[in-house]
What does this fold into?
Amino acid sequence: MVYPLIKLGLAWPSPPHTYPPIALHAGVDPVHLGIIITMNITIALITPPMGACVYVAAAVSKIELSEMFKSIWSFVGLALSVSVILIFFPSFTLFLPNLFK
It folds into this structure.
């Protein structure tokens, strides 16, 4: 009887406004969190199935949508690599803000 409730809890997304307080309580810098969230949104906006930016770019440039989705993978790979680097080395993200403290 508990198993369906656990599945419902895992499938039910938590509201995005709960992430910053949890991350701040865990000791994550707010600037670092903002950069990571922005990178994730950027990746989400260019990858299928949604890929809103790719749909707009294909419509404006009059290039076939399948060609656009084929050509974005190098950018997705680069964005994922940068995200991983920033997650594991927060000093890269916090270098400039720390200069102004």
Notes: The chain has a mean pLDDT of 82. Residues 30-46 form the longest helix (17 residues).
